[in-house]
């Protein structure tokens, strides 16, 4: 009886404490959040936050700029899909430059290059060259805002390829993201009549639409295969190892794309394109040079984000850059922005957000599991 009374009194007192615990007002919640942000800030050195800011800025500006420059190339008279896809890989030495100080001044050494790893780099390089060419066809015929929205479907294929190839899990949030982003892509397809630029036929628009989806699918496959290389061969995912893989894949992508340029005789065609470019030869050169630079800066920024923070933050920045690209395209190129496209944009951001929340909760639950003894 004494035990029961004791348990009963403890239950009552616990309930009383819970009921008497005051709920935080909105001012208190803001204060608590501010304190959390401040504690997080103090937990890292200032150099960390500077690098994180620079990496985030690079990712949010470089990738949209690269997309817009690709569209500008075609809008101002560029014709070659090989040339604009070449700009995505010709800047590979820029990424390699970031590796050199790590080898000479850091405590890291180059990853041993086995025959198996080399073959994987060659395969990924070939797929990257094909992927860039597909996106070049998309930007030749689609508005930049539309091409950017359709390219976001790569998340669908990344999730599916990751599930089948790397055995990653698919939770309800991931499935919801797949469904929502798919609906967004379908909505754009329904609005093809009002989404075409003058001079673009319905057949060309359809080609651009299909190539964009196929490029996104191949991009998802490349992402899953790259993860497989880390899991099965490299066994580690440090900053310099990720950069090494990016340099090697971009190098072989550059080799394959250069072969395509030579076979298609597009190196000689550059002179003709430059002479007929709307803004002149100098502008033609600047478009190609900055398209190459911005693409590599975007890669460096996203790689640094993955290393400094997490895939969740990288996903958040991906969500932000989709509407940034669309808004910039509307302002700079006067892209049509109908109700269909706005609906698709909202659904795309919703899908990305759902995927990020699911990934974040999965990571939190797995890290909070106590080890069994």
Automatic annotation (TrEMBL):
Keywords: Membrane, Transmembrane, Transmembrane helix, Transport. It is a multi-pass membrane protein. One of its GO terms (cellular component) is membrane. One of its GO terms (molecular function) is purine nucleoside transmembrane transporter activity. Its main location: membrane. It is found in: Membrane. The chain crosses the membrane at residues 46-70, 82-106, 118-142, 149-166, 172-190, 247-267, 287-309, 315-333, 340-358. InterPro entries: EmrE-like, PUP_plant. Belongs to the purine permeases (TC 2.A.7.14) family. This is Probable purine permease.
